[in-house]
Amino acid sequence: MKALLPYILVAPAVLYLMLITLYPGIFAITQSFYNVKFGPWQWAGFDNYTRLMGDYQFWGALWNTFVIGSISLILQCVIALALAFYAYRDPWVQGWRIIFLIPMLFMPSAVAFIYKLAFLDARVVADLFIRVGLLDGNVAWQSSTWLSRMILIIADVWQWTPFLFIIFVAGLQAQDEEVEEAARLDGASWYAIFWNISLPMMKPIIAVALILRAIDITTMFTNVFIITKGGPAFGTETISYFIYRTGFKFFNFGYASAASVIMLIITIIIAQFVVKRAFVSART
After folding, report:
1. Beta-carbon contacts of residue 96 (< 8 Å; ≥ 6 apart)
2. 20 to 30 Å CA-CA from 277: which of 8, 45, 107, 263?
3. How deeply is 92 buried, as exposed, middle or buried, from its count of CB atoms within 10 A (0-12, 13-18, 19+)?
4. CA-to-CA distance for 141 and 146, rounded, in angstroms?
5. Cα(61)–Cα(95) distance, integer angstroms
6. Is 23 exposed, middle or buried (0-12, 13-18, 19+ CB in 10 A)?
7. What would the pLDDT profile of 69-126 be if each residue is shown by its tens digit?
């Protein structure tokens, strides 16, 4: 009985996770092979997947997700590494690290509304630029694809850089201090130690952290829904917003499920490749 006790204690949590993850996943995969609207399900086979291959809006949503996500992820990684570099050893900064975590404590919808007010509704950012002499008039943010993408990127970077910062600081603090001390005695600077010793040892941690954030970025919906609505001309429509629009505006649930299944497969393949490469390079 003692041997079974750990499994009995964990079983409710496992069943709950399976209920909220495994069942919806199987349901979506099954639904993707049917034409599902309001009537009875009609078997479609691979029809939905075939249509997706020729749907320019689907490929555009994938491209937007890649562009917005990759720029946001690179900026978050660079900023988080820079902050972690200055925070994990400096005694003064260590005492104030909680300040870096404040953006992550806000609700995503609240952050989206704040940036919508700042850039679009209240025109706070444009007004500040005008007052300092950088602009002559208001900026039509929503008429430019790249300006609209920039708002989404800034909002995402501001809120979720602390997530990577926490992981990077923990990884740096977990490293053997004797290795750094030996390099310092040999005359290496802090930057040389970080770049040549700490950073290579952090590769698996960085890879896992980036994969976690990348998976979350592929589901970027709140910022798009509140700030840009996918515009202008679908220029900021991410794959999550495409799935939402297909399923809950056009009520084509089978087609939306097929798009979500393809996105899941792409995410798994990329995640496996990146993590495998990172761990192999860390061993060598």
Report:
1. none
2. 263
3. exposed
4. 9
5. 43
6. exposed
7. 999 999 999 999 988 888 776 655 666 777 888 898 899 999 999 999 999 887 888 8
